[in-house]
Amino acid sequence: MELKTLAKKLIFDTLDDIQPEKLVKEKLKELRVDKKVYVLSIGKAAWKMAKAANDVLDIEYGIVITKYGYSFGNIENFDIFEAGHPLPDENSLSATKFAVEKFSKLSKDDILLVLISGGGSSTFELLQDGLSLDDLKDVTTQLLKSGADIKEINTIRSRLSKVKGGRFLNFVKSKVITLVLSDVLENDLSYIASGPTYETSSTFEDADKIIKKYKLDFNENIINALKKDVKVNKKVDIEHYIIGSIDIACDVLEKKARKYNLNTLVLTTRLDCEAKEAGKFIASIAKSSKLKTPYCIIFGGETVVKVKGSGKGGRNQELCYSAALEIENMKDVVIASVGTDGTDGPTDAAGAIVDGKTISKVRKFSKDPYEFLLNNDTYNALKLSGDLLITGPTGTNLNDIGFILKG
């Protein structure tokens, strides 16, 4: 099988096997929830998580709040909302307000099942008094362009919110069971979707360090909100369970690779540096690895992009394009990196699959292919080479997966 074809097959086979339905159903059957329950499901995997819960439980009523395009139809007894991501919008605020009003009416005898996946920080939001949606958009835009990682971003966002950092519990009297698909390295519950049901330990001093580190320019309203310490209701009976993570995704990918008789190595599940530097590193392994061919060297994590140019792209595209610059003219090697949620930055691509021919294809349109990397314009470069990978919404979100294939 041609290497790029095999790469696509490995990606799509892995995505098929890490869908939330199986993970949610297995956990709910293990927990043996036999009462009528209410459901709040947020994030990019919200619809599929809610559908799975609805298949196995007697659900009185539920709400799904997910990214635009990530709802796949009606679910009986559910209201479904779509909202902005990565930038929150009016729907993020109105859907969250609706959910808070609904579930604050539950009693101590009820059960609220909260299903959380990455993307919930943007789609599930109720701002502190005195803040506007424009304030939140400004904060989010600055953070996304700064090169801050997800923990730093959510440290800031959680302190601006009435529902993040465990503060959603201030509106709830019922028992809460939270199932989480992690898109955060180390699976820290306070950072996944900014932890609506898990109290953050962050302080204003933590936020201030981030502001100074990335030279962020926030207005007075934002600074005043960051300084507020809001207590979290600790009387709520609550359970948390992480049911999916990048480790599971990489494990599934490795099993798929072995089925094609590839020698495998999971290099890391914690790749968290700048994307372009990660690309150089991955390319250096492709050049020097002594693992017996044919092989598949797997990596997972979540890199960052420090935006300095005016182009279009995402972290997986930047990683792949940076690697492609290093492996130009190499034969029998493919490097892939993809967001398991089907989204990479503000683009329609999930990532890319590159090889030794990628840059030579770009050279037909540009004298200096490196300019695309400098301008953070890897989407357009990879579009020219035909190496973008577009999956559409996948309904799951377990960080990014990637690999080197060598034949």
UniProtKB/TrEMBL annotation:
Q: Name one GO molecular function term.
A: glycerate kinase activity
Specify the enzyme's EC class, one word: oxidoreductase
Q: Name all MOFRL-associated domain ranges.
A: 7-226
Which UniProt keywords are listed?
Oxidoreductase, Pyruvate
Q: Which InterPro entries match?
A: GK-like_C_sf (IPR037035), GK_N_sf (IPR038614), MOFRL (IPR007835), MOFRL_assoc_dom (IPR025286), MOFRL_protein (IPR039760)
Per the record, the domain of life is: Bacteria
Q: What is its EC number?
A: 1.1.1.81
Q: Where do the MOFRL domain residues begin and end? A: 296-400
A single Gene Ontology CC term: cytoplasm
Its name, as the record gives it, is: Hydroxypyruvate reductase
Q: Which organism is it from?
A: Thermosipho japonicus
Give the source lineage, highest ranks first.
Answer: Bacteria, Thermotogati, Thermotogota, Thermotogae, Thermotogales
